[in-house]
Design brief:
Helix content: 25-40%
Strand content: 25-35%
Number of domains: 1
CATH superfamily: Regulatory factor, effector binding domain
CATH class: Alpha Beta
CATH topology: Multidrug-efflux Transporter 1 Regulator Bmrr, Chain A
CATH architecture: Alpha-Beta Barrel
Largest sheet: 9 strands, antiparallel
Shape: globular
Number of strands: 9
Distance between the termini: 37 Å
Structural class: alpha+beta
Order of helices and strands: HHEEEHEEEEHEE
Length: 201
């Protein structure tokens, strides 16, 4: 089953109608495009307020669980029951690390960017203690866009393509790659927009 099939289950849990309405009108974080060359871009992003959760599980399971938790937060699962519009993309980042017994276990951090104008101080506290509210600093990213479903093979290929493009341009990574997915599960593969984003120095 493709990765986004599990996200579809999460969407049903929190309410397809609510998510569908939000995603169709989803805003993207403000940014400045510095350079465009085909599917490759360099972008500057300002500081962003982010809700994130880390799940120790394979990527498909982590995406499902993390999406459900974060969707619960923006749809009222917070102090005061405030609701927020969903933004795009949903971001995944490999977390890794060891468990309590020192064993390595696969883990992923799932992130929602909060709507424009949101500040860390003004965001309500999540009801779910696993959710963290953080402010990501301003950063420049090298970005590679790819279509289809963001399964492991497609994502690995796009990551390698981005790495090769960065090497040709003399760009150096300042952090690990992020997987950015912009579409709800029901969008056909050929219409989907996914990106690998790597912060650069």
């Amino acid at each position: 089953m493709r990765h986004f099939a599990s996200i579809a289950i999460a969407a049903l849990v929190v309410g397809v109608a609510a998510i569908g309405a939000s995603v169709r009108a989803a805003d993207e974080p403000a940014h400045t495009v510095v350079l465009t060359d085909g599917n490759f871009e360099i972008r500057d992003y300002p500081p962003l307020t982010i809700a994130e959760v880390t799940v120790r599980a394979p990527r498909s399971d982590a995406g499902n669980a993390g999406f459900r938790k974060l969707a619960g937060y923006i749809f009222g699962g917070n102090e005061g029951g405030k609701k927020f519009e969903m933004t795009a993309p949903v971001i995944e980042a490999r977390a890794g690390g060891a468990d309590a017994k020192g064993r390595d276990r696969e883990a992923w951090t799932i992130r929602f960017v909060m709507p424009a104008g949101a500040t860390l101080a003004a965001m309500p506290k999540p009801n779910d203690p696993d959710i963290r509210m953080v402010e990501a600093p301003a950063a420049r990213y090298a970005v590679m866009r790819y279509a289809g479903y963001a399964d492991d093979n497609a994502t690995e290929t796009a990551t390698q393509d981005l790495g090769a493009t960065m090497a040709k341009r003399g760009l150096h990574a300042a952090g690990p790659p992020l997987i950015a997915q912009y579409n709800p599960p029901w969008i056909p593969g050929f219409m989907r927009r996914n990106e690998i984003m790597i912060p650069i120095r």
